[in-house]
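Regression report. Comparing outputs from two consecutive submissions.

Submission 1:
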Amino acid sequence: MTSICELQVEEVLRRLETSESGLNPMEAKKRLEIHGPNKIEEVRKRPVILLFLSNLYNVLALLLWIAAILSFLTGNYQLSVAIVMVIIINALFSFWQEYEAEKAAEALKNILPLMVKVIRASEEVLIPAADVVHGDIIILEEGDTVPADARVIESHNLRVDASALTGESKPVRKVSHPVREADNYIDTENILFAGTQVTSGTGRAAVFATGRDTEFSRIAALTQEVREEPSPLQRQISLAARIIGALAVAMGVILFLVNLYIVRLPLETAFIFAIGLMVANVLEGLLPSVTLSLAASARKMARENALVKRLSSVETLGSTTIICTDKTGTLTEGKMTVRKIWIPNKIIEVTEAGYRPEGQFLFRDEPVSHRDMDELRLLMRAATFCNDSALVQEEGEWRVLGDSTEGALLVAAEKMGFDVEAELEAMPRITELPFDSRRKSMTSIHEKSGKMVAYVKGAPKKIIGLSDRISVDGRVRALHEDEKEMIIGIHDEMASEGLRVLAFAYRELPEDIEIRDPAEVERDLVLVGMAAMYDPPREGVKEAVERCKTAGIRIIMITGDYGLTAEAIAREIGIVEGECRIIRGKELDKLTDTELRSILARERDLIFARAVPEHKMRIASILEDSDEIVAMTGDGVNDAPALRKADIGVAMGSGTDVAKEAADIVLADDNFASIVTAVREGRTVYENIRKFITYIFSHETAEIVPFIMMVLFSIPPPDNHNADTRNRPWDGHPTGPGPWKIPAGV
């Protein structure tokens, strides 16, 4: 069946059994009864009281309960009460951690709107978002939140921020014409998803999924269904508790039998000795000591920008064997910067990184000439006219509103002193042909001296193919096929360096042209140049990667970016050193779990490009099945299931609330180096806990030995009522000859 994104508007309305006039109220009511309200469904949870009680009967807690009961039976009431308090305090702490983790679905709910504007029976009405049904025509304006999944049927410069789903904050254009479904379904250009927000423009869309059928609800269900697995520390403590319990019972039974049948103590005395030995074996100080150690490390990690939500995560990080990480914003600064500009026969270097408009344009380490500046101005005119972003300064910091790539072009224009506002005033925009993934280009049409000029920006190979002329030293001449091949070679060379390249061209339009037809406008172009952009690695990331490798931790990059760009960054910071294998999202979908498991085990230099969050979850599952301890980074709503599935979910501080609720650790600074610092702290914690357990066992030995010595050598116990026990026989102890009996009168 043809996907709804590939249909014409009329076919979309026909499939949804609706029209541009909207549904009539009776039909809407009928559909609401059939499909149910447009709300996120929650997976049925355990009652809160059961969630709390479950923390009172884990293996170590049961062992402590037994110790408390035995202490009570032996008359050591203070120890009994202390042990019970330890159990309750730890149960409360664990319950609170688990209860906090259940808030991911609540964070999802808060994203959806309360009211929405729809067309019902040709009239615009405001209805509760919960009453939106299949076939409703929703009206969208700047600032609105999309209430359900819908197909765009009318768009006027409509841009949507999908960061609630993807974690990527750049607004994306939405169109109404048919398009092919994108590799990442969420990036499909004519589909809107519940929870995304309109940043500019207006539009209308036909709803095709509500409630539990939306992408949001699917993610919510996945997030809630992923069960929290015990951490390595929890598993090891549970195993230790079983061993200790078995040893305590075994030693108690053996001592009881020795006392009863060999030493021939009275039944009551033998039983008290056995209970005392069992209590001495119980590590009642283990739980609070571990908790305090983890809490202290969590506070220390918070100072290093790693906020810990689940204490056991501290130690789990120390056990991490693989880190699966994003690229943009985690390994890199997330700030695109123009590094090179190609104008005919010259490559200009642009200095300085980031959004601060400071830097130079150099050719062979010298400032560019005035003639070259004229060519650069022509390129900057195309770069800034085909641009919907803004560069702003707030409290001394420069940032980009909109697409980071377009922002990088604005920064470059500012660096060379190009006055965008003055240029736009002299050449006002008439209309815009938005970027289209099929055309791989964007055009802005302007008026100059009564004539129309189209400025075009897009994929280099596409723009070069549409150009038949080129601007060289201020003169326009024919562009030959051999020159095109040479220019494409320059593009490939820059792309192999990890640079993202865009090409620019223009065309003076005839008066009788249909300016809304891209096929008519975007041909016979004059090529003016290319700009190559780069997202630089974060400071300290290269050193952090080296520390990971030294510690035996493998790093796998999983990114939605281009494979070559990802590989270039990976090589620069040291993740990749030898021959690298790049697996794109579509290729990954074709691999079976067995094939993927083999690749993950065999390939050391591996990058997953054009990946979506579902791929992250699958990779995490396969690695965990291979007994790896996996840390996974993420920042979008649809990263939440993968963050819950991984042994350690690491959310970005700039990410969505849902991702942060689903994660175990939140990085306040989004920096990969902070993960490595946290791993180091986790290993320190593990070592400290190991030393403490060693100390406890040596301490328990000191408690156990007196019981054994008292029995084997007939040493009487101390008497609280009479300190002088030298001439007092053991109450109830048999007297008479024999190696195991106390002589009469002793």
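Submission 2:
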Amino acid sequence: MSDKRVYLYDSTLRDGAQTQGVDFGPADKVAITRALDALGIDYVEGGWPGANPTDDAFFAAPPETKFTHLTAFGMTRRASHGVDNDPGLNQLLSAKVRHVCMVGKTWDFHVDVALGIAHAENIAMIGDSVAYGAAKVDEILFDAEHFFDGYKANPEFALACIVKAYESGARWVVLCDTNGGTLPHEISAIVGEVAQKIPGAHLGIHAHNDTGNAIANSLAAVRAGVRQVQGTLNGLGERCGNANLISIIPTLVLKMGYRTGVTEQSMRRLTHVSRLLDERLNRAPDKRAPYVGESAFAHKGGLHVSAVEKDPRSYEHIDPELVGNHRQIVVSDQAGRSNILARFREIGIEVDPKDGKLAELIDTVKGNEFDGYAYDGAEASFEILARRILGSVPDYFHCTSFRVIDERRWNARGELITLSEATVKVAIGKRKAMAVAEGNGPVNALDAALRKVLMPIYPDLEDLRLVDYKVRILTPGDATAAVTRVMIESSDSTGRSWGTVGVSANVIDASYDALRDSIIYKLFSNGVASGHA
């Protein structure tokens, strides 16, 4: 096949949500969708309408996207129903999106054992559902569940199922290695045979990683003709996970010469998107992840450092900046400079690379990161730090002191009562003010008290919302005296969202630092002048 365009389908919000220990909330789904849209992913599977309240809330008011086709996932009709009276199918097609992915059985073993229906009825269920859906939405995708196991067991039946989907109007027929047990040479051979029945321009691959071959299987399928690849960010997924799109994208583009919706510029966001997901899951990024890991382009001592300083190609398979990562030469005082300069370009800060303040910023960032700060996922805190060192952030306010009191008691009826109260003293120029507020927890109370003082002077804060709050223990060996990192995500009525970070042995102190940065970033990005008298 001469066509080099490969379409990317992300299933992080549905298949990835089936990962043990992963539980996305509505805010997570919106943020991840927006990140994938900015990256240039063709399809984002938002979830399964009707499966749970989170997915229902997401599809009731789906986020707007500029590039991505937001997609709903669900099943074909059931054997006991027609397409017009199957509640699950009609709820799927009623979601506020124009692209729908339907899953159906293509392994005779599953049809016999799991469904207990005739093979002809299974094929009819696929054809009826796809044709019904194709008349209602822009595109139908058909996920052929257990296709490779089915093909190896009964190729005639497996082919009959997917040909029926294609002939009934499916834009994409996706071949799923649902159990993850197929090997690359099998993928190549089977896809080659399938492509004799269905054009590769209408075929996709959905690989699981149970043998550690999900990425290799996906790439083998592309070489054999498929032109859609399904996967998840960082390889999230049930059991051993799905194919990792973070690794697949640069391999397809930079190594194999294929084109995707990810442009050269947006690929520089790849590391950011990978780490953004980890921050939302409140887990440490994999340092050794290909392309985007902290250690992916790290060099320490000896011959490696000497060779890399002469020509990075000696020990680097690509330029790390192509994927938004950066080189780390542990013994060099230049480590991180190029990454910080790249960040400056992204946020519109112009600085002379020889400016002494840049060296000061690099040293500060290194020191902060050693202390536990993480600026991936907290870009607003980084921008404030950078602009403050460069001398361009207004002095909006100073919180001269705050106090937080938590009370836990039982009332006369034996009911447990918890109450948080915060008192803040704030200086805005020569003006000083104090406020007291209660809240649902100490951070909420502290936020409410700050707003009492600040909003009369800075009404732009009216639409500031804190949408997520995460705490990570950085020194677990210290037990209750451990250092903590607090990440706060904020948004406003324009749809913007930004992250801030604070680090302290006192979780309330760390929370204040992240909260303060969020407020300052909101005011600065709105172009608000200092409210000093």
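Expected: both submissions complete independently.
Actual: both completed, but the second showed a warning that disappeared on reload.
Relevant detail on submission 2: The CA atoms of residues 245 and 516 lie 35 Å apart.
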